[in-house]
Amino acid sequence: MREPARLQAAIEILDSVIAAARTEGAAADTLVQRYFATRRYAGSKDRAAVRALVYGAIRALGDVPVSGRAAMLGYADGLAPQLLPMFDGSPHAPAVPVTEDPRAVLGAAPAWLMDRLHARFGAALADETAALLGRAAMDLRINRLKTADVAAVRAALPVASAPPQGLPIPLPFALRLAEGVALDTHPLMQSGVIEVQDAGSQLVTALGAAQPGETVIDLCAGAGGKTLALAADMAGIGALVACDTDRGRLQAMAPRLVRAGADAYVEARLLNPGRESEQLADLAGKADLVLIDAPCSGTGTWRRNPELKWRLTEDRLARLVGIQARLMNIGASLVRPGGRLVYAVCSVLREEGEVQASAFALAMGARETARLALSPAANGCDGFFVASFEMR
User: Under a CB-based contact definition with an 8 Å cutoff, are residues 375 and 326 in contact?
Assistant: First the structure.
């Protein structure tokens, strides 16, 4: 593909990304893959170049653009002037710009969201938003159900290093990889010795400190990343129940459990929204630990999914805050007196973090035992809020 044709491809993909952001459609990664699935003529260099243009524009623009063309013109005007000559109107290239063309405006996030980010980060706002919209490192967790030999695993992955130094809790079984490492076919991945998991996500389960022999409930298990970490902490001893309301996610967990050697230790439960308490009645007041990795804005994961900033609205944020509070109430009913509840969101917004945790502690009379507010600039991991409570 010629460079102008690559630019036009990026514009067409951005049109799809913008439409998906407005309708809660497919993620940008999925849309990029779909685009090239029907364009076999595009080589690996073409795909990489187009992807870089798409994500460069997404990261550079605050509000949702009116179109892919407006997005790319705004990106070119503000940060990538070398792209402007490619709007030349040649075959398969974007049309020559005219005065009437709308142009998107540079920014880290929509204005209403920037206000909330400022409330969270204050004077560090510029550094934190730059880190949030940067590129994420690849972190691994060594699965102790398969091995505890960190040195051997690290030797088999010569580009691995220690996790970032800004973490508030040591992660002795975490490693960080250099960019460009393919793991899908690596023997350590295929055998379940390692799992890809951001250091911030690993800190969530570390704060829970699940122990062998305990009864543990992962209330929002999703595809099982934190469930697998809990199983390793428990050494396969005790009761671990992984719950979700999404059948597809629970089904995606099953092969991961088998690969990690945890399938015999984990009970998966599909819950119906609104009937969670009824379907977990047999566990009421019995859990030593309940982990709630609640649905949230995902503002802490923009390094991986920068288009999420275009999907979030004030109304959606309010709905998510309501869901989080309801899930915390359900979780509290499952914990035995003296047991632990860990609440986590991959968000950097105070409404979903500090405010939510304080309201829960006050309403439930729970004792907050720990609180972590993580961010890419300060901690070198995804943005998370995590709080641990002792239930009375």
Answer: no
- pLDDT tens-digit profile of 65-114? 999 999 999 999 999 999 999 999 999 999 999 999 999 999 999 999 99
Residue pointed to by tokens 């396969």: 236
Burial 348-375 (b: 16+ CB within 10 A, else e): bbbbbbeebbeebeeebebebeebbbbb
Domain end position, chosen among 81, 107, 133: 107
Residues 97 and 227 reside in one and the same domain: no
The total of structural domains in the chain comes to: 2
Does residue 222 sit in the same domain as residue 368?
yes
392 within 8 A of 227, measured Cβ to Cβ: no
Residue 197 lies in a domain: no
**Contact call for residues 339 and 289 (beta carbons, < 8 A):** yes
Quickly tell me which residue has 């275009």 as its tokens. 310
Confirm if 137 and 175 have CB atoms less than 8 A apart.
no
Which segments in the chain show pLDDT lower than 50?
Answer: none
N-terminal to C-terminal alpha carbon distance within the chain: 64
Contacts of 129 (CB under 8 A, 6+ apart): 108, 109, 117, 121
85/220 same-domain check:
no
How many angstroms separate the CA atoms of 196 and 286, rounded? 31
Question: Is residue 58, in this structure, part of any structural domain at all?
Answer: yes
The separation between CA 179 and the C-alpha centre of its own chain, rounded to angstroms, equals: 18
Closest CA to 219 of 240, 197, 195, 203: 240
Active site residue 346: yes
Domain stops at, among 107, 128, 159: 107
| Domain with 283 in it | 207-390
Q: Which residues face 344 on adjacent strands?
A: 293, 386
- Tell me the CATH number at 248: 3.40.50.150
pLDDT of amino acid 166: 80
The answer to whether the CB of 347 falls within 8 A of the CB of 296 is yes
pLDDT at residue 164, as a whole number: 77
Give pLDDT, residue 129: 95
Position 252 in a domain: yes
Q: What is the pTM of this model?
A: 0.93
Q: Which one is catalytic: 243, 296, 346, 381?
A: 346
The answer to whether residue 303 sits within a structural domain is: yes
